[in-house]
Structure formats: structure tokens, C-alpha cells
Specification:
- By secondary structure, the chain is α/β, with parallel strands linked by helices.
- The chain is 27% helix and 30% strand.
- A 5-stranded mixed beta barrel has the order 2-3-4-5-7.
- It is globular, with a radius of gyration of 15 Å.
Length: 183
Amino acid sequence: MLVIKFLMIIMKDIKKIRTPISIKDIDDLRVGDKLLISGNIFTGRDAVLPKLKRKIIENKDKPKDKILVDLGGSVIMHTAVSDAGIAPTTSNKDEIESSIPLLSEAGVRIHIGKGSLSEKTVNSLKNQKSIFVVTPPIAALLTDSVKSKQIVDYEYEGIEAFFKLEVENIPGIVAIAHGKSIY
């Protein structure tokens, strides 16, 4: 309870947004804005994001249903999903960061993780009208925001499978937006 009270103090002036995320939503956000994100978000990290990237490239000229989900206006959190909970992993690992430009082009508007990203990725986010959000690395708080979970693809990857989560009030701070970065 103390953690939640602390977060409420530091998270005053919070902007609440819900998926799907529109380009207008992104245009209205600035580096340093505090967010509560609700709706459906996807998860992926080292094992799944390179596979998802390959699938998008291989099916570029085919119907969108080939990747099983519509990524338009979506949010992807760089995390695994287990019974112990969720917490962001480092987003500047090559397997993760190299997927961000293509996923943004495919419609992902918000990438949630931790750590700084390269200037090339910052520019790609700007060009694709996407942003990068960092969350507090407090697994218990983040996990409490998850209302339901469902494996979408790559089930054989276990906790690193591609999940769809229904979330309510995932906290975050805009770290990269419109070519600007807090790093």
C-alpha cells in the first residue's frame, strides 16, 4: 500500500490513455508525461520479437491476419509473462531494439521497457509516430494491473511467448517522443 501511495504522489498530473492508441494520442504526449495505460497490450522480448519481426517481413504483401493480430494502435511491453508476474526487461538489447522500427511501422504506437535507445531508434520512433515509455521496475504493482492474459503466438517459448494482456492502469513515463529523449 505504501508503494501505491508513493507512486500516486510522484505520478500526479497523470494522463490516462486506452488502447488502441491513435496518432493524435501520440501527438499530445511529451517526454516526461506520466501515463496510466489501460486496454489490451502485447508482450514480447528476446525470444519472440525477432520471430515476430521475421513474420512481418515474410508476410508484408499478404493479408494482415498472417501475424494473428492487428498491431495498429497497439502497445508492446518488453517482458515475459509468468505466474510470478511481469516486469520490463532492458529494451536496448539487439534482439529487442532491432524490432522496434519494424513493429512501429506495423502500427505499434507505444513500446514499454527500460533503458536508453540508440539515436537511430529514436529517429525511427519519431518517423513512425510511436513513442517509448519506461515503467517502474516494480513487478508486484505491474502484475496487479493485469486483468487477463492469453497466448497469441509462439506458445513453445513458455513465459517468453507472444501474449495479449488486458491491463488497467499500467504506470509509465514517456521517455522518448517526437525525436526527444530523457536519456
